[in-house]
Amino acid sequence: MLVPSDAEFIDAFGVGTQAEDEPWVRVVQVQDVRVSFDAHASSVRVRWFQGDDPVVDLYRERATRMLVWSGKGESHVAVEFEDGEMHVRIHPSVRITSRDD
């Protein structure tokens, strides 16, 4: 799975990734959205929280590429999978879409 560099995360969100309990799993927390990924296992998990409670918890495998960007007052994460895609708009409001081919 191709993933953005830490510099790209910082450019898009103002924060870089951190290691999870397993050092090969990376996570970035942007406002109420937490995106974790394992580039070696090609897996991605997106969690959206309201307070301490998860509102959405999506986990998918077979990711091929992750993209991050911001502009025009919005910030985004997109993940391409062998069989679909997931798109997360983080700012100005959270919107998560996921589709299978």
Determine the fraction of residues in helical runs and give it as a percent range: under 10%
Which ranges are low-confidence, i.e. pLDDT below 50, for 5 or more consecutive residues?
A: none
* Total of helices: 1
Secondary-structure element series? HEEEEEEEEE
Q: What is the terminal separation in angstroms?
A: 18 Å
Strand line-up across the major sheet = 1-2-3-4-5
Q: In percent terms, what proportion of residues is strand? A: over 45%
Overall residue-averaged pLDDT value: 95
- Return the structural class: mainly beta
How much is the radius of gyration in Å?
A: 13 Å
Instruction: Count every beta strand, where a strand is a DSSP E run of 2 or more residues.
Output: 9
Major β-sheet profile: 5 strands, antiparallel
**3D shape:** globular
Please describe what this structure looks like:
The protein has 101 residues and is mostly beta strands. It is built from 1 helix and 9 strands; from the N terminus they run H-E-E-E-E-E-E-E-E-E. It has one helix at 6-13; strands spanning 18-19, 25-30, 33-38, 43-50, 53-61, 63-71, 74-81, 84-91, 95-100. The protein has a 5-stranded antiparallel sheet with strand order 1-2-3-4-5, with no helix packed on it. Strand 3 (33-38) and strand 4 (43-50) form a beta hairpin. The protein is globular and about 30 Å long. The relative contact order is 0.19. The mean pLDDT is 95.
